[in-house]
Amino acid sequence: MTSVALEEQQEKLRRLVDDWRLQSNVLLNNLAKDPYRSPSTFDACSSNYDPVRVFAEPLEHSSLSTLVESDNVAVSKFVAVLSYDCSEISRLSRYARRNIYRQLSLFGHGSNPQEMLLEGEPQKAFGHALPLFMELSDITRRMSAVMCNLLQQLDFIYSLQDKNGTPCKSFKNITLVTAFTSLGDGLAMFLILDEVLANNDHIKNYLSLFTSMLNKVKLEVDNLGIAVGDLDCLDQVLSHLGRLLEFGLFKRLLREESSWNEILQKINQNRKFLDACTSCIHDGLLAIIPRLDTWKESLLDRKEILHYVALLLFGTYATAQMPEKRLGKVIKEMLQVVPVIYCEGGFRFILLDLLRSQFIPPLSAWPILRDATTESATIKNKYLIHLNEMYSRDWQPMKNALACWVASFQSTIYQMVELSKVEACLTLHFKQIIQGILLANRMQMMVTSMLDLHMLLQVPIRRERLMSLCHIVVLIKVVESTFRKKELDIIQTLPHMINLIQEEIEQLLLLVKEKLLSEISRGSQAGKIKILSSLTRGRDTDTRLTDALSLVLISLRMLEGGGSGKRLCILSTALDVLQSILLGYLDIDYSRIKKLISKVELVAKFQRILEDVTECSFLYWREELMGTWFSMVYMDVNKLSWLQYLLDAFCDGLRLLKHGHVGKSVIHSLEEKIESAVKNDILAPLCKDIETDLRLHVHSTHLKESVPVNPRKTGVRNLSCYIQLKPLRLPMKSIHIKLHVESYLNSAFHKYTAMSPNDWKIYLDMRQLAGLKYGLVLNEIHLPEHSLETDFDVACIMQNLEEFAATYSYNMSNQVFIRKASSNHGRKASSVFGADNVVSSITTHGFGMISAALNSVLNFVTQKIIALPEFLQENFVNSISRKDINVLKISKKSTNGYPSVQGDRYDVAMKLPFGDDELRLLEQIRCTITYIGNVLGLVRVLQAGCLRYAYSESRFIRKPASIIRYDEEFQKLGSIDGMVTAAKIMHTAVKIIHQAEAHVEFFSSLLTTVSKGLQSSEKMPVRDFYLIIPPLIIYSLDFKINGKDKIMRRGPDTVNQIIMDDGFMMGVAFVLKVTEQEKALDGLHWFANMSEHLHQQLLSLEESKDTEQHTGNSGLTQLKIWGKTGSPISTETKKVIDKIKNYQNELELVHCSLDIAQTIIICN
């Protein structure tokens, strides 16, 4: 490495360390401010999100031609060409797996599938993803060219009629398993891409919208200032993408590619190639199927099934004939044993559907497919039953094996000191790595298959099985965590383990080399050796021996490196040729060599393989399991250690989204769901359970007879284990359970003490018990018993809000509450509650008491509103005849509005035509609405008190646009300590203003909250509620006027009785607003009609009075006698006239009060 490159790497490392140091400081500062909620870019304690991680994988810097260079030029070229194609196919497939599949599957994915995008958003999203689709086009084009070249080489090798002669005569009857497997790998890439594109409808839709936009842009090129050449280039790209996605990539590759059409025609006539391909598929599937769902199943068996299926489809396209019978039997067995496979990030392939969709139409009547189609549902159900049986059979042995593996793996990984034990320890170390990866792969396959098949077949999962699947997910993350803890130790010993396996392969090949050298040295003694017994010409024998020796030498040279993928590919190709040349003549254990090569590849790429087998991103599509599993874990103390592993499993979905390059809103939505699940299913129940436990123990002491506590049943659950848990690590933040519980209890105890000052001793004992039993450090409760300025305290009022609403009357104009005379209990003075009392309570308790009070108001109003329809059901509707209801509904549509007089139903005395039961029901409705209005009035009084307190504390401070830390600003200016202290006082005062304004805004949100509560409630007020308002007002007027009459009579029970009904008007206005019936009430024109009706009655009585006076003064009585007046008006008539005038005044006052109340509701 040059000095310049070394300096660049050192500079990058220095920058990385500096960034990490800065982010660590930010993390520590956030923890100091808000420890249990502080967000962080990553968690230094989490292995999944380490800032620095060592990634080790063997790389090859030598070119392929250099690696296979040999004196035997023909053999060298032969191996080089095949190895290059196989290596390139593997590279392209690996690139698609990392950079194409997930990005395409998540294209257009949003946090809410039903969310409608704004106009232009799909086009914008497709424009941002154009590089992805360009990569898709490039990689499919390159893969097509490489596979076509590989097919040409294989066609030439297996060709029976070669005019130019075979370059290597000893290569006539070879079986190139590696080449065919690589061909299947490349073809499988097209099948996976077709599956991804078929399951994502956004791609074609967005492409269509983007193309339409581009056509519109072409018409306005001059206005937009875009070069025509750029548009044409983009148009060509879109046209190519459209053709690429139109018929499916796999079918388009085999049908429309001109280069492939030529090679397919050649292959159709090359029977030797087709037989070799068929044999490769048959032998491969025959070897894999018995191993499936057993402990012998290897890591790549299920992926290779997809490769062989791709080769089968390729063969049917090439020959246009049905597969051979022997191959048909294997395919039938495969469809029964493993009808569904999952590969490449959890993509599901139903093999039967794949064959049916990709088979050419003439072969769709293949009996194997036809029979399997008729039994498709049965096969899937049998496979699910088989998985359940396999789970029941292998679950316990799997747990035991994993427990032994974790213990042995952690105990065997250590630095070697004695050289005599190095080889044995490396061998054991190597076996442990392979065993852990295979266990994780088997568990991942099991949980993925069972969850997906239960959803696909809509079969419910039993709770016990769901818990077991949760356990499997936890064990997968345990394997990952165990590997991560020892990752550096593994990396240190990685080259030695690879060399150890390669030495074993080398020993086997050296035996072959010695035998070949021995045979070549003998030369003329051909008759004594079995390998030459069937040959007649020594020249052919020498060629075969020398070619085999060249292949052995190339293989040995490949074992001299570090186990890179390129070297292993060359080694596998050379061994395929060598096996074909020496088949039946030399006893070589090729199967053992192949297994050792696969182990080298597994160990060399253990980090990438480990990420694949321990990834739980499939849980992103099973978000409903999050709350269920968290609840299960919380209910069992023995499973608390699962919690962090479960969080890591669900956080794998974040890595999936980040790799898929989705929008930040989608990632943020998943983060919120995970955090919300933790808080709702773990933290919230834990806080409530700890509070309940403390409350039961304390109450059992204070109320020994009322709250019996059995120590054998109560408190047996050890909740302290939850408090002792380490902070839960999330990629975006850490959640400290202990600090969260402390914050909850501090808030709860302060609130309860503020709301119930008489119980302060109980909450003090609970706080002390929390420290003794759970080790919680709680704040002192600095609250006096009650407010000392007056007899009123907001905290005391909130203890029984309904009693306050019943015993006090609200004055809307003066913003005060006056105690009703019936509730004064013989007092000579009335009690008044106003804003001054609120200020006194805030001074005593602080704004926390106001927050608790407003929450109580919200609950009270919501309960009353929802309970109101219970009075408006059948009883009241039946009390008014159907005829009257119809008249009301008809009349409100006319210009006259609500009928103030219907015959003589409402006489001059304003008596309602209802019986006692109906009047009693009206009284209940009036009281309920009055309670609501009084409580809303209490909210206004609380608002006024908050503002008065805030501005009395900071009357000379200008309101800033945002809260400024004055003390910090003064410190920056270098001010003295006295000025900094004054700045702190100013900051506190400004903060009080903002807190007060936050509480004032509560009134405006109350209406919205209650409206949402009604919409979600099944009990909605009746549709014609506004029609009941007039009878309620008339009843209220009667009640009010009768009360004032009692005051005029000055009875002994009416001392200091003051009648106010503003609470009723406020409640009516609020209920009308909530039920959206205020316009309907205005449409009745009831107040105008009632005023007119009373006016007409008054005129009628005035006329009758004049008539009575005229009649009384007729005849001799017309002669006035000195000192005498005319005939007086009757007492009853005068009473009626006075009463109507009182009704007019009160009605006008009620109308004005209702207008004011509605204005208040609307303005807020």
In short:
By secondary structure, the chain is mainly alpha-helical.
| DSSP strand tally | 7
Spatial sequence of strands, sheet with the most strands: 5-6-7
- State the secondary-structure class: mainly alpha
Percent of residues in helical segments? 55-70%
- How much strand content do the residues show? under 5%
What does the main sheet amount to? 3 strands, antiparallel
What is the average of the pLDDT values? Answer: 77
Please give the alpha-carbon distance between the first and last residues: 73 Å
Determine the number of helices (DSSP H or I, runs of at least 4 residues): 46
Measured on Cα atoms, how large is the radius of gyration? Answer: 44 Å
Query: Shape from CA axes?
Result: elongated
InterPro entries: WASH-4_N, WASH-7_C, WASH-7_central, WASH7
Protein name: WASH complex subunit 4 N-terminal domain-containing protein
Organism: Papaver somniferum (Opium poppy)
GO cellular component, one term: WASH complex
